[in-house]
Design brief:
CATH topology of the largest domain: Beta-Lactamase
Number of domains: 2
Order of helices and strands: HHHEEHHEEEHHEEEH
CATH superfamily of the largest domain: GAF domain
Radius of gyration: 22 Å
Keywords: DNA-binding, Transcription, Transcription regulation
Pfam family, one: HTH_IclR
Number of helices: 8
GO biological process, one term: negative regulation of DNA-templated transcription
InterPro entries: GAF-like_dom_sf, HTH_MetabolicPath_Reg, Tscrpt_reg_IclR_C, Tscrpt_reg_IclR_N, WH-like_DNA-bd_sf, WH_DNA-bd_sf
Strand content: 15-25%
Oligomer: single chain
GO molecular function, one term: DNA binding
């Protein structure tokens, strides 16, 4: 007796593997390659791809190669339009707070400043508290440096000339060349630091959050008294940034390469 539920789930699993294999390539993919990538027999892969093509989820070129179809774009745009970054970020931020025991911030850019749009705090007496709606100059915050880095050297130097790099503390970067060197390195390594540059006694680690267009749309940071900040958190914070980026439609295969 055939178990139709198990059979249906198996088809969905194979379908998902085929879509993931097509999405992983920047160019249309042949049936032979898709079969090898997914471990599916060519005839099985062909039947599923034919059905996907019929419904617009994939497109088959004249040479017989496959690419993602416009139906996925249509569905994706509907999902994107319903996304609330604060709602998507909240459970991830709570997880990160529990992992580090410190304050976690969600930050966006507005002009030459960052704005704190959400926060999650630990249950401890000594903690850093950023005010939701609070603002800081880009160059003194960890996430702000990542925004500056994405704009490139020219935009970073223009920011420096436009703002004059006013210091928040004696540790703030006040030289344009030094600033670009710091922010470029931050984007290359996938995180940035605030070493008491925004507030004395406070250190932060920030990571970028990207959306489906591959642009940085926000950042997640962990703020702690400087003596409690740990480099060991970096991989966990990056994991949180990757989780939120994935929720916003970012694919790691499309991560920009920084020269």
């Amino acid at each position: 007796m055939v178990n139709h539920t198990t059979s249906s789930i198996q088809v969905i699993d194979r379908l998902a593997r085929l879509l993931d294999a097509i999405a992983a390539s920047n160019n249309p993919v042949s049936l032979k390659v898709l079969s090898a990538e997914t471990g599916l027999h060519p005839s099985t892969a062909f039947r599923i791809l034919a059905s996907l093509s019929e419904h617009g989820f994939v497109e088959r070129s004249s040479s017989g190669h496959y690419r993602l179809g416009v139906k996925l774009l249509q569905l994706g745009s509907r999902v994107q339009g319903r996304l609330d970054i604060r709602r998507e970020a909240r459970p991830i931020m709570e997880w990160l707070r529990n992992e580090t025991g410190e304050t976690v911030n969600l930050i966006v850019r507005e002009g030459d400043e960052v704005v704190y749009v959400e926060r999650v705090t630990p249950n401890r007496m000594m903690r850093v508290e950023q005010v939701i709606g609070g603002r800081s100059p880009l160059h003194v915050t960890a996430v702000g440096k990542l925004f500056l880095a994405e704009g490139g050297a020219e935009a970073c130097l223009e920011y420096a000339a436009r703002t004059g790099l006013p210091p928040n503390t004696p540790h703030s970067i006040a030289d344009a060349t030094q600033l670009w060197r710091a922010v470029k390195g931050s984007l290359q390594q996938g995180f940035a630091l605030d070493d008491q540059e925004a507030e004395l006694g406070v250190g932060c680690i920030g990571v970028p959050v990207r959306d489906s267009t591959n642009h940085i749309v926000a950042g997640i940071s962990v703020s702690a008294p400087i003596e409690r900040r740990r480099e060991a958190w970096i991989s966990t914070i990056r994991q949180a940034g990757d989780k939120l980026s994935a929720r916003l439609g970012f694919h790691p295969e499309n991560r920009p390469v920084v020269a």
